[in-house]
Automatic annotation (TrEMBL):
Gene3D superfamilies: 1.10.150.130, Intergrase catalytic core (1.10.443.10). Belongs to the 'phage' integrase family. XerC subfamily. Belongs to the 'phage' integrase family. XerD subfamily. GO terms for molecular function: DNA binding; tyrosine-based site-specific recombinase activity. NCBIfam families: PRK00283.1, recomb_XerD. Transmembrane segments: none annotated. Site-specific tyrosine recombinase, which acts by catalyzing the cutting and rejoining of the recombining DNA molecules. The XerC-XerD complex is essential to convert dimers of the bacterial chromosome into monomers to permit their segregation at cell division. It also contributes to the segregational stability of plasmids. Forms a cyclic heterotetrameric complex composed of two molecules of XerC and two molecules of XerD. Coiled coil: none annotated. Residues 100-285 form the Tyr recombinase domain. GO terms for cellular component: cytoplasm. The keyword Cytoplasm applies. This is Tyrosine recombinase XerC. The gene is xerC. It is found in: Cytoplasm.
Length: 291
């Protein structure tokens, strides 16, 4: 992917650094499939073959959807540069075709996960606080990684996070979760923050005092999910999915969940209404005359 296209994604499309990096990986994969063929000679049928090839590569549906989106943007850029006349990728359809219902962790298993870090673990207070924040706020791993000390307001019960497109939002933090975070701040974080003053402003720190990375957060969630006996495919995003689904199951308004999740469109939030069938059954049983 050329430097000019990277600059286009950042300056013209205003995409976040993580999204740009993901699109770069998508296009490297596309170039591998393309081989010696020229982009100008491609037809719609061949582009459909590319999507089929992605399936054979065993990519997740969400990754395939993103790969199509990144290709659409790349072809649009080539149009602007006068390299292509038509954007044939637009004919592949919407990425919604490949959307799948997210995995959700049952509430009782959430409890097991949140208490999985033990006192024998070297940074168990930090790890418990991390898991609490992920589930209590529904924030993405990248958003939690980027939380700074002045973004956290324990007494008021909220954190301020920066989401996709550098959009900021307020995410509520319940008292129970706030107490776990305070324990980490009082008893464990001070000795971590002394090891690397450059990253001392961030909330979650590694053993070397650096900001806890998105990859490290992913690994910690995997570690404690395995200990709690949860599906090995669980990820930080599973906690985000569970946050939304459990809110809807408890009767939360869809618009409120959309705001807390930081979704630009309510259509994105509506996927969680397909996950929680128990609430629909309860409403039917309560109000339908034949229930």
């Amino acid at each position: 992917m050329s430097a000019a296209f990277t600059d286009y994604l950042q300056s013209e499309c205003h995409l976040a650094a993580n999204t740009v990096a993901a699109y770069r990986r998508d296009l490297v994969r596309f170039e591998r499939w393309l081989g010696a063929r020229e982009i100008r000679t491609l037809r719609v049928g061949e582009l459909s073959d590319y999507v089929a090839w992605l399936y054979k590569e065993e990519l997740a549906p969400a990754s395939i959807a993103r790969a199509v989106v990144s290709l659409k943007i790349f072809f649009r850029y080539l149009q602007l540069e006068g390299i292509l006349q038509d954007n044939l990728v637009e004919l592949l359809g919407s990425q919604k075709i490949w959307r799948r219902i997210p995995s959700v962790i049952a509430p009782h298993k959430i409890d097991d996960l949140l208490t999985a870090p033990w006192s024998e673990d070297p940074y168990w207070r930090r790890d418990r606080a991390l898991l609490e924040v992920l589930y209590a706020t529904g924030c993405r791993a990248s958003e939690v990684s980027g939380l700074r000390m002045d973004d956290v307001h324990l007494d008021e019960g909220y954190v301020k996070c920066e989401g996709k497109g550098s959009k900021q939002r307020i995410a509520p933090l319940a008292q129970k979760s706030a107490r776990v975070v305070k324990t980490y701040l009082d008893e464990e974080r001070p000795r971590l923050s002394k090891k690397n003053l450059r990253d001392a402003a961030f909330l979650f720190l590694s053993r070397s005092g650096k900001r806890l990375s998105r990859i490290a957060i992913w690994e910690l969630v995997k570690k404690y999910a395995a200990r709690a006996g949860i599906d090995p495919d669980v990820s930080p995003h599973s906690l985000r999915h569970s946050f939304a689904t459990h809110l809807l199951a408890g009767g939360a308004d869809l618009r409120h969940v959309q705001e807390m999740m930081g979704h630009a469109s309510i259509a994105t939030t509506q996927i969680y209404t397909h996950v929680d069938q128990s609430r629909l059954k309860k409403v039917h049983a309560q109000y339908h005359p034949r229930a």
